[in-house]
Amino acid sequence: VKRITTNTIQEMKQKGEKIAMLTSYDYSMATIVDEGGIDVILVGDSASNVMAGHETTLPITLDQMIYHAASVVRAVKRALVVVDLPFGSYQGNSKEALNSAIRIMKESGAHAVKLEGGLEIRESVERIITAGIPVMGHLGLTPQSIYKFGTYTVRAKEEAEAEKLKQDILVLQEAGCFSVVLEKIPAKLAKEVTDSVKIPTIGIGAGQHCDGQVLVINDMIGLTKGFKPRFLRQYLNLFEEINGAVQSYVKDVKAGGFPNEKEQY
Ligand code: KIV
Ligand code: NA
């Protein structure tokens, strides 16, 4: 199979071909997602929520991100693997940012890193790219700043924040980012900024005009019970499927029906 690279992703925008991205955090899931034909796998710091059960993405560590990333990389044959730099591993110190990115690349074998923010992290982005590490940006709702925002509602509805986002995407393009995630912003603004840059935008809750789409795999297959924001299309209800399987197993074991004659040595 031909591997997807950052160049492939950029060519897709030029050809008007949409980019499909999903998260994965472990070997088994990444195998299925890669074989399903996904273009980009994001080892998101949403692992903090869906894997570790934290309320926010802030607690996850660089070591934990590397563990998830290495597990995913071992599974992937085709997709581009992008890894989130976790909270505290890059903000405000470009040397530390570079060291964190280098650790991810060396210790996991991933292909690129993702950082949240615009102008504030410009120096870090430039320094990482100078070292030869591709960077994906992330604007709009940036969950590592949740305590600054206060809520997970739609961002950049007001003119001032929309203006800053328009500037930030140009800063990220100028700094050399190969792509940018746009999270939870109005579709109209997403279209405007998508048209304003050469690099592909990948939306989550950012409407149909982005160059690509991303969802958290656990949400998309219905593993996260009760999480149903408007932007989420749930393709399966695996919570119910697995819950049903567990109930059947418990019933079988309790009734002495498992294992049967054929299922033993
Ligand atoms: O961590 C994550 O899953 C993400 C996506 C939602 C873009 O950053
Ligand atoms: Na993230």
Automatic annotation (TrEMBL):
Named cofactor requirement(s): Mg(2+)
Gene Ontology molecular function: 3-methyl-2-oxobutanoate hydroxymethyltransferase activity; magnesium ion binding; methyltransferase activity
Localization, UniProt: Cytoplasm
Reactions mediated catalytically: (6R)-5,10-methylene-5,6,7,8-tetrahydrofolate + 3-methyl-2-oxobutanoate + H2O = 2-dehydropantoate + (6S)-5,6,7,8-tetrahydrofolate
EC number of the protein: 2.1.2.11
Residues reported in the UniProt entry to bind Mg(2+): 45, 84, 116
Active-site residues, record numbering mapped to chain: 183 (proton acceptor)
Annotated GO biological process: methylation; pantothenate biosynthetic process
Presence of keyword Magnesium: yes
Major place of residence: cytoplasm
Pathway as given in its UniProt record: Cofactor biosynthesis; (R)-pantothenate biosynthesis; (R)-pantoate from 3-methyl-2-oxobutanoate: step 1/2
Superkingdom as given in the UniProt entry: Bacteria
InterPro entries documented for this protein: Pantoate_hydroxy_MeTrfase, Pyrv/PenolPyrv_kinase-like_dom, Pyrv_kinase-like_dom_sf
Note on cofactor: Binds 1 Mg(2+) ion per subunit.
GO CC list: cytoplasm
Keywords: Cytoplasm, Magnesium, Metal-binding, Methyltransferase, Pantothenate biosynthesis, Transferase
Pfam families reported in the protein's UniProt record: Pantoate_transf
Stored SUPFAM superfamilies: Phosphoenolpyruvate/pyruvate domain
Residue sites binding 3-methyl-2-oxobutanoate per the record: 45-46, 84, 114
PANTHER family per the UniProt record, alphabetical: 3-METHYL-2-OXOBUTANOATE HYDROXYMETHYLTRANSFERASE
Family: Belongs to the PanB family.
Task of the protein: Catalyzes the reversible reaction in which hydroxymethyl group from 5,10-methylenetetrahydrofolate is transferred onto alpha-ketoisovalerate to form ketopantoate.
Quaternary structure and partners: Homodecamer; pentamer of dimers.
Name recorded for this polypeptide: 3-methyl-2-oxobutanoate hydroxymethyltransferase
Provenance organism: Daejeonella rubra
Taxonomic lineage: Bacteria, Pseudomonadati, Bacteroidota, Sphingobacteriia, Sphingobacteriales
